[in-house]
Amino acid sequence: MTEAQWDKKLGIHTIGRDESHADRYRYPYEPTPYAVLQRLAQSGLITRQSTLMDYGCGMGRVGLFLAQQTGCRAVGVEYDQRIFRRAEQNRLACGAKNVEFLCADARGCPVGDADCFYFFNPFSVEVLRPVMANILAEWYENPRTMRLFFYYPNEDYRGWLEENPQLVFDQTIDCRDLFVGDPREVILVYELKPY
To answer: Quick one: which of 152, 145, 124, 120 has its CA closest to 30?
Structure first.
């Protein structure tokens, strides 16, 4: 199915790119392709028991699709009020009961019971650091297996991930066959495991 066909099937509108509020710390809105989300849904790493937090959720595609495909609960975090309102419209349009969106700065957003975290380069490493500090604080307070998914990771993200001993590399979900010639078309999966 095409991007437009998936949007129509879900009853949402998420296609396009929006750079209107992007800056050096927060990157433009660009949705993860549905073909990549299908790979993630089929990986078995996100289940009905999972709570997924999508940082920089944009118009809500990741949470709405994965909740529909896997039965997980999804929480999307978006700082741009205008784009957040679009995510809310999408949530209402498709009738998702197990999805919520928060209009918040990711650095101060509580992790809650989330055990899966999705990042499509939503912000700079300067913002990623405090976000990860929140995730780690929650993990220390309530130890559980947590999975972190980094789609299309840029060099800054890759470098930061390699420098953090708490994060254990688990696997790569390869999507390079979907987009010819781009070695970044992968989802890197990291874990935090209780001691």
So the answer is: 120
Query: In the sheet that 146-151 helps form, which strands lie side by side, from edge to edge?
Result: 99-103, 73-78, 51-55, 116-119, 146-151, 186-192, 168-174
By the 8 A CB rule, do 29 and 83 touch?
Answer: yes
Q: At what angle do helices 34-42 and 61-70 cross, to 10 degrees?
A: 40
- Structural domains of the chain, with CATH: 3-192 (3.40.50.150)
Q: Could you give the CA distance from residue 156 to residue 19 in angstroms, rounded to a whole number?
A: 20
Predicted confidence (pLDDT) per residue in 26-76, tens digit: 667 789 999 999 999 999 999 999 999 999 999 999 999 999 999 999 999
Question: Who's near 140: CB < 8 A, 6+ residues apart?
Answer: none
Q: Report the candidate in 7, 160, 172, 189 with the shortest Cα–Cα distance to residue 86.
A: 7
